[in-house]
Amino acid sequence: MNDELIIAGKAYQSRLLVGTGKYKDFAETRAAIDASGAQIVTVAIRRTNIGQHADEPSLLDSLPPEEFTYLPNTAGCYSADDAVRTLRLARELLDGHKLVKLEVLGDPKTLYPNVIETIAAAKTLVKDGFDVMVYTSDDPIIAKQLEDIGCCAVMPLASLIGSGMGILNPWNLQIIIENAKVPVLVDAGVGTASDASIAMELGCAGILMNTAIAGAQNPVLMASAMRKAVEAGRDAFLAGRMSKKLYSASPSSPAAGLITG
Question: pLDDT band for position 44 (50/70/90)?
Fold first, then answer.
């Protein structure tokens, strides 16, 4: 069965997108990315060297762009202007790369998105020719507005960035998914493999995570677990779960033809 993730016209086999921050070194980053099976990797332009510091080790050496699709993000930006400026820099560093992840944060304590600034930045970036994947709240109205602006993927949070609290509002996620014509990927809040499976069972097109893997006691093993969880959750969604029947027992084996005394 051909079940590819299509983002900005490009097909991917993996539906797990992985961040490159918070690992002990670039070697561990590479090992975790390999174990995850991810084809798209995110990089925080303000925090990771991808060539802007010529005298320091570069992530590009450990994760060559010819092997992975880079997704520059605006982590650490608190205004539309800062986000736009950061992604224009990323485009220069990555030879005209257009696929980006926009996030504009509201405050440094919760890292909750500032949707007003996010919308402003999205308008500018789309007009400037970027393919924008956008981190946002789980507000279905805002998600639809970002899609209408021209974002190629909408990425609502499951819970706060780095919290590991899992999916706190599956109902809003389902509304966003049902009304979207672009891929909807959960971004932020996943803590363990079961969270990833639940997100995929809801119908999410994919999941982006960083802390859930990098913050695990064994990041490489957790990356492998997340890979399996995303695949299992996707398969379960495509298979279509049985309906729930409260107080309606149904034997798993046929009731006809039983031997009676």
Answer: confident
